[in-house]
Amino acid sequence: MLKIGSIVMKQILRNNFFSKIGILFILLQIVVQCTGLKNRYLKNGDLLFITAKESGLSGAINKVTQKQRNISFDHIGILEIVDNDFFVLHASPVGGSQRQSFKEFVKDQEGDKQKIIVYRLKKEYEKVIPDAIKNAKSMLGKPYNDIYILNEDSYYCSDFVERAFRDAHIFKLEPMTFKDRVTGQINSFWDGFYKKKNIPIPEGKLGCNPNGLAGSDKLEMVMEYR
Which Gene3D superfamilies does this chain map to (predicted)? Predict the structure, then answer.
């Protein structure tokens, strides 16, 4: 009797194990299918905005540039779709101006739990996308501009995107400010940032930022990728 009971218990445990494996497999399939479904809604030339963190460089950028009350961004890239392959053209502190696989780009945001918000050019401006991507590719390989003062030898993220679409006047350069939106004083992070680099704060010089680009009346928000 004990032997029979032991056999029955092993069978139950074995069935339970395979049931869990089956459930896990189904969940993985759902995740894959959902990702594939979202990818089907992406279009060549979509702009991928990354939500801002609250601290460090990201937080400092947000404190002096945020325009929308409920959402703000600290990075942006251009989606390029070639056949069934997805890439992101962007300028990053790690790797400079680069063409990165979309899968890796998405994975890079997971560690900091940042969201990807997809914007798209309004229909009447879609015709400029091929030239913009061509312009973006011509800038690949340049280092990252870590002083955020426009020059022809290095680019920061929004600078890279603005230049790609510059011929079509999708975005515009505006006087930069490093003043805290609440106090009206130069933000302490930026004060220390430029002192360390022994460079005057470029207050009022022309530039751009992800929040400013997201405010273009030539774009529309499409979806949250994740």
Answer: endopeptidase domain like (from Nostoc punctiforme)
Digit-coded pLDDT (tens) for 5-57: 455 455 644 556 555 555 555 554 544 444 455 678 999 999 999 998 765 56
Q: Do 54 and 140 share a structural domain?
A: yes
Question: 58 with 161, same domain?
Answer: yes
b/e for 158-187, b at 16 or more Cβ within 10 A?
bbbbbbbbeebebbeeeebbbbbeeeeebb
Q: Is 198 helix (H, G, I), strand (E, B) or coil?
A: coil
Sign, CA dihedral 217-142-154-107, equals positive
Same domain, 8 and 59: no
Q: Which residue has the higher pLDDT, 191 or 32?
A: 191
**Euclidean distance between CA atoms 154 and 65, whole angstroms:** 21
